[in-house]
Design brief:
Shape: extended
Number of helices: 20
CATH class of one domain: Mainly Beta
CATH topology of one domain: Porin
CATH architecture of one domain: Beta Barrel
Strand content: 15-25%
Strand order of the largest sheet: 3-4-5-7-8-9-10-11-12-13-14
Number of strands: 14
Radius of gyration: 46 Å
């Protein structure tokens, strides 16, 4: 039923019509060929027509064969009609092949199997998605050697030029028209040259004087460098005299020779031959066809060797002595005097008069131009041009059959949609979906999920074993004793009168994880820093209170450029840029968790022996803690991070920054005007990357809505983990 439905479709009937038309045309050309053979106006060799055509064309291109001129003249008109008709038939046959598939395509291909050129591109068409889609591309590629639309345009342009050349040789009228145009263009370019020649004659001496001054400076520099290197002579570029017109004649002769050689090459190559250009590794001795830009000068005509003047030798000796003594005072004074003399010699009065004259000339020219031109006429001319353009568009719109355009588009869409084989499309989609699901089902059925689960559990057990081993082997008693000794001695030693009325005991946890990627010229660091601490405040005569003094999660990515290597600290220096996201573990009272994105850029000193970072940067901050009430801020920041190893197990760390906000997108009373943070920490390694660290921290800040600054001073103990992964 499906086959019968297809045979009754409009597409099938159209296909049958095209096939029958192609057959009728082939029969007509066969009859015409038989008539030509009977009256002796055709080639009568015992070969197939396509083979004879291409063989005769090949021999004609080579200028060979034994066919007589009279026979060729008699048969060419008819042969040309046969070739043209055959090409038309080939086009229709190709259309038929593209519309068919399966057995019917094989039938048409058998019909055309005797034509060699069809065998070339129909084979290529079958390899590209079953004989459908890409038919035109394959025809252009295999039949005509055209691999892209750009190549097709180039061939068409070249064919058009060649056609005009041939027509000019045949038609005297066309030759006269092209010759007249060429003569006018030649006169035009010569007129431009003649118009600008006086300007060139005035400017050339000025430019020549400037060039000679530059040559003098360059020669002096060459003398000085030669003297500094211990030489007594130097190579000097000689003044030469060249003839421009003579060099043009030489170049023209070279171009003529190259053109002649190219024509000789073309006569040895058929139109369907392919040339593959390879890299030219020939020596520079083969210069045939290359323009001569030296004007026939030899190296001996362009260079000479001269002795270095004693004055230059004296300056070189002075520089050597200054370098030896590290004292360039005398040389600096000499350069300064030369500069003063040069500046004093500038004729400012003459320059001012000339500039004023130029300014007055331009102004008076503009006055005359603006006051003379009929600007109303200019505007009217512009309006008439616009009216003309719109009138042209209106005339087109009135006379164009818009309904025909709509019908053409609609019929095109109908034809495209009507020609789609939806049964084939649906079957293809179903097969693809089935293939994907079969793959997934096979994957699920084949994988040993019990083994996967067991492997995952073993991984978790390995992590737990790590922490269990670390906890069991840690000297908790020793750590507790050390901590007690530290706290007791600190309490007994601190002068609480000077410290104030508040005593604080605190503990803080710190996690610092860094991924670093370093190259000779740059460094990229990605870090995750987390800290949380609580402090117990014991005011004298008041109840104890507990306060959260540290709560930060900071994800940072830094890019540092190594432009300079400094002797100071043996550190790197250069510009840097960073982006960071900051939040916190717990909310501050009833407020939501902090959410801030911060970007920095500036200059940084880094990787020093003790100073790990020292920077100054501009800061941009986007605070979206409160949804619908976002704030954008601008600030500048100065920061430092330093380390000093005390022993293999102990090191001192100092971190601090000062950030001053200078701009806000809106007023929020609780936003900081500035903030200062300084933290000193003594890290004592207790197990691999884990450490205990007594710390002292000071923070000071000022909110926008408060007149006074606020600050806190903390003393406590931190438990820290720190590691660096260098990728």
């Amino acid at each position: 039923m499906r086959l019968e439905a297809r045979k009754n479709s409009s597409a099938w009937k159209s296909l049958q019509y095209d096939i029958q038309g192609a057959k009728n045309e082939i029969e007509g050309y066969k009859n015409e060929m038989a008539e030509m053979q009977s009256n002796g106006t055709a080639f009568t060799r015992g070969y197939s027509l396509p083979k004879e055509i291409f063989k005769g064309l090949g021999k004609g291109a080579l200028g060979l064969g034994s066919l007589g001129l009279n026979a060729a003249q008699k048969g060419w008109g008819g042969l040309k009609k046969v070739i043209s008709g055959t090409a038309s038939v080939l086009t229709k046959v190709t259309t038929v092949i593209k519309r068919t598939s399966g057995a019917f395509a094989a039938l048409i291909q058998k019909f055309t199997s005797g034509i060699p050129i069809l065998r070339r591109f129909t084979g290529a068409t079958k390899s590209a998605s079953g004989g459908l889609g890409g038919g035109l591309k394959n025809i252009l590629k295999y039949a005509f050697g055209i691999r892209s639309l750009f190549a097709l345009v180039n061939k068409l342009r070249s064919a058009l030029v060649d056609g005009f050349k041939n027509l000019a040789q045949y038609s005297g009228e066309t030759n006269n028209s092209i010759s007249m145009l060429m003569s006018s263009l030649t006169q035009l370019k010569n007129a431009f040259a003649a118009a600008f020649a006086p300007i060139l004659n005035v400017i050339a001496p000025i430019l020549n004087t400037l060039i000679q001054k530059i040559i003098s400076v360059v020669n002096t520099f060459g003398q000085l460098t030669s003297a500094l290197t211990g030489k007594t002579t130097y190579i000097k570029a000689k003044k030469v005299q060249q003839d421009y017109a003579k060099s043009l004649n030489s170049n023209a002769n070279s171009a003529k020779n190259a053109k002649k050689a190219n024509e000789e090459l073309k006569r040895t190559i058929l139109s369907f031959d392919q040339i593959n250009k390879m890299d030219d590794n020939s020596s520079s001795d083969s210069n045939s066809g290359i323009a001569d830009t030296s004007g026939g000068l030899s190296p001996s005509d362009m260079f000479e060797t001269e002795s270095i003047p004693s004055k230059i030798k004296g300056i070189a000796d002075m520089i050597k002595q200054a370098w030896k003594n590290a004292d360039f005072t005398e040389i600096g004074a000499m350069v300064g005097n030369k500069l003063n003399a040069a500046l004093n010699s500038i004729p400012w009065d003459k320059i001012k008069n000339t500039c004023n004259k130029i300014a007055k000339s331009v102004a008076t020219f503009l006055n005359g131009f603006l006051e003379t031109v009929d600007w109303k006429l200019v505007g009217n001319t512009l309006a008439q041009g616009i009216n003309t353009a719109f009138g042209m568009a209106n005339t087109f719109a009135e006379n164009f059959h818009w309904d025909s355009l709509g019908k053409a588009i609609g019929n095109g869409i109908n034809g495209a949609l009507g020609g789609l084989d939806w049964n084939l499309i649906q079957e293809t989609v179903r097969n693809i979906a089935t293939g994907i699901t079969d793959t997934l089902n096979s994957f699920i059925q084949t994988t040993d999920w019990a083994l996967v689960g067991q492997s995952f559990g073993n991984g978790i057990n390995t992590i737990l074993d790590f922490f269990h081993t670390a906890i069991n082997n840690f000297d908790w008693m020793g750590a507790g004793t050390a901590l007690a000794d530290f706290v007791n001695n600190a309490v007994n030693t601190i002068d609480f009168v000077n410290l104030g009325q508040t005593i604080s005991d605190g503990i803080k946890g710190v996690f610092d994880f860094v991924l670093e990627y370093e190259q000779p010229n740059w460094q990229w660091n990605n870090s995750l820093f987390m800290e949380y601490g609580r402090t117990k405040l014991k005011p004298v005569g008041e109840e104890d209170t507990t306060n959260e003094d540290a709560d930060k999660i900071l994800l940072t990515s830094d890019y540092n450029c190594k432009l300079w290597k400094l002797e100071f600290q043996n550190a790197d220096a250069g510009p840097f840029a960073s982006v960071a996201y900051q939040t916190e573990f717990t909310r501050n009272n009833d407020a939501p968790r902090m959410k801030v994105v911060r970007g920095k850029t500036g200059l940084k000193l880094f990787n020093g022996e003790y100073i790990k970072e020292l920077y100054a940067a501009a800061v941009g901050e986007y605070d979206f803690t409160y949804s619908g009430d976002e704030v954008r801020k601008g600030a500048y920041e100065i920061g430092i991070r330093a380390e000093r190893p005390i022993s293999d197990q102990v090191k001192f760390q100092l971190e601090g920054y000062f950030r001053n906000y200078v701009s806000y997108s809106k007023y929020v009373a609780t936003d900081l005007k500035y903030e200062l943070s300084v933290t000193g920490r003594m890290d004592v390694k207790i197990y691999q990357k884990f450490s205990l660290a007594p710390y002292v921290s000071y923070f000071q800040g000022k909110a926008r809505g408060v007149d006074k600054e606020g600050s806190n001073f903390l003393i406590g103990l931190s438990f820290a983990y720190s590691d660096l992964f260098n990728l």
